[in-house]
Amino acid sequence: MSAPTPGAGVSLPKPLLEISDLRVSFGGQEVVHGIDFAIQPGEKLALVGESGSGKTVSALALLRLSPDAEVRGRALFDSGEGRCDLLQLRPRKLRGIRGRDIAMIFQEPMTALNPLYTVGDQIAEVLQLHQAVARADSWHSAIELLAKTGIPEPARRAQAYPHQLSGGQRQRAMIAMALACRPKLLLADEPTTALDVALRGQILELLSELQREYGLAVLLITHDLNLVRRFADRVAVMEQGRIVERGAVAEVFANPRDPYTRRLIDSRPVRDLVPAAPAGAQPVVLEAERLRVAYPVAVPGLRGWFRKGEFVAVQGADFALAAGQTLGVVGESGSGKSTLALAALGLLPSQGRLRAVGGAWSGSVRRDRPLRRAVQVVFQDPFSSLSPRMTVEDIVGEGLRVHAAGLGAAERRRQVAEALAAVGLGEADHPGIAQRYPHEFSGGQRQRLAIARALIVGPRLLVLDEPTSALDVTVQKQVLGLLQRLQRERSLSYLLITHDVQVIRAMAHQVIVMKDGAIVEAGSAAEVLDAPRHAYTRMLVAAAASAPG
Asked: CA 246, CA 243: separation in Å to the nearest integer?
């Protein structure tokens, strides 16, 4: 950061962490180009930028957690044993600082937590390694830490494995582990990206409360500008491995100087839809009456030998989606919205009446094939939904092999090229795209590939399962604009599943709000979002509004 003006009578405390000319390279290719920043004790600094801007790589480089990276520069840190350069420490010395003086919360706790150990064991291990605490004492401390993060029944949750916890509970367990040794600096890498809006607010409040209580400094790495507004004191904006703007959060957001910063701030979703048709003017492509979906569950004790219980995920749902319109389904994690989507796709058995594009799912692969062509899906994570072993041509053209098996290779390639061009990935701008693989594309490009794969068979209904939640704000805006254009051009119907109220505002004609498997409110987007009647809907809308965008 800039030093105080000489003679101004200003005396700043010595930074807790001072980064100078940090450069990170992979295979001789530099991706972080000499960045500088500092964090004061107890300060909250946000490092913000799109995917690929270098923000996560920079944070990982400080703790040398990227083994293939070549790191240069200086990172002076005021550890418990004096000031040291993190980039020059020997591995054993650095391991002592990790977890004790500097802790990290990773973006996806499901992959960061060890699936073979309970969360209590993993928190206790940190205390045993860094503070030589006895096992019994470390276990009691782990329970206390879980309780401090607000997890209900912490003693029982400590004995749970990561897969037995919800997304919000896993993130709280990760926070408890990070704070076990009361570090001086916390690196939080996209700590709320995978969470719904209510959980996101809870985790944010928890981090703020613990930051004040422990007096630790926080380096927040995020692409979520709303998160930055609510949490950080200062912000540094990264683009293509360089810091292009920095300053107090209020100042940067009110008067952004760099064009990239202005583009980030202006990247809220835009509503650009064909107006909703009058009721009955368009044919209905998806409708349900008294839809019920239940999962079998084991019954504890001797009763489990004789019968199975059930968990009702969707109960008594009624809705209808007209051609060329979007029905938004909004709710927190566990509300039943994804189960409803799976039932609409014929991937889960259901009770009640459910008709898609004029037909009903039979459960027979052969009989359902025409319906499968008419109803396609775009998943939340484009990276995991695209096979890494298949080329773009194979991925996008796969549906034609199933639903138009008589097509020749040349015609199939032509239709693949048309589908790619329709989503903005034409050969002219992306030479050789058909023979490339998913890992060669950005997150937004991969989601466009997923949309092209769905479009190529000419569907009438697309089920969109959180299609932009894994994307940066600018890329999210582009993908939503693409979906809106395709809907206008092709009269597509969308069943949009999301926890993001702002996406619903931009995309939906009609909205249903789900809580605990039931629809608690339904109506037009304007009715539900601007004048919500149910307390739960008001909470969701308020949670979204509390993060101004």
From this structure: 7
List all residues 6 or more positions away from 116 whose beta carbon is below 8 Å from its beta carbon.
161
The two three-digit tokens of residue 517, written as one number? 């498997």
User: pTM of this prediction?
Assistant: 0.76
Q: Please count the other Cβ atoms lying within 10 Å of the Cβ belonging to residue 184.
A: 23
Asked if residue 368 is part of any domain, the answer here is: no
For 302-342, the pLDDT digits (tens) are 766 767 778 888 999 999 999 999 999 998 877 889 899 99
**pLDDT value at 133 more than 70:** yes
Residue at a domain's end among 434, 459, 484: 459
> Within the chain, how many helices (H) and strands (E) appear?
21, 19
Q: Is 68 exposed, middle or buried (0-12, 13-18, 19+ CB in 10 A)?
A: exposed
Percent of the chain at pLDDT above 70? Answer: 94
Cβ neighbors of 418 (< 8 A, separation 6 or more) are none
**What letter would DSSP give residue 505?**
H
Q: Does residue 196 fall inside a structural domain?
A: no
Q: Report the alpha-carbon distance of residue 547 to residue 549 in Å, rounded.
A: 6
Q: How many residues does the chain have?
A: 549
The DSSP bridge partners found for residue 25 are: 30, 70
Does 533 share its domain with 406? no
- The pLDDT value recorded for residue 137 is 86
**Nearest CA among 123, 225, 220 for reference residue 165:** 123
Q: Give every CB contact of residue 138 below 8 A, 6+ residues apart in sequence.
A: 123, 124, 125, 127, 128
Write the DSSP string, 458-500.
--SEEEEESTTTTS-HHHHHHHHHHHHHHHHHH--EEEEEES-
Inter-residue contact 343 to 350 (CB < 8 Å): yes
Q: How far apart are CA 376 and CA 360, in angstroms?
A: 15
CA distance 126 to 115: 16
Amino acid type, 387: S
Assess if residue 486 is contained within a domain: yes
Query: What distance in Å separates the CA atoms of residue 47 and residue 134, rounded to the nearest whole number?
Result: 37
412 and 396 in a single domain? The answer is yes
Q: Are 431 and 477 found together in one domain?
A: no
The count of domains in the chain is: 3
Last residue of a domain, one of 459, 483, 502: 459
Q: The domain containing residue 323 runs over which residues?
A: 269-301+310-357+460-549
Structure tokens at 302: 């001797």
Instruction: Please tell me whether residues 385 and 413 are part of one structural domain.
Output: yes
Q: Indicate if 335 and 465 belong to the same structural domain.
A: yes
- Contact status, residue 30 vs residue 241, Cβ threshold 8 Å: yes
- C-alpha distances in Å from residue 467, one per residue of 72, 221, 276, 330, 470: 38, 22, 22, 13, 8
428/539 same-domain check:
no
**What's residue 153's pLDDT?**
86
Separation of alpha carbons 164 and 175, rounded Å = 17
Across the beta sheet with 185-189, the strand order is 102-105, 185-189, 217-222, 44-48, 234-239, 242-248
What average pLDDT does range 512-538 have in this prediction? Answer: 94
In contact, 318 and 514? CB cutoff 8 Å:
no
| Residue at 480: amino acid letter | L
Stretch (H or E) spanning 207: helix 197-214
422 with 276, same domain: the answer is: no
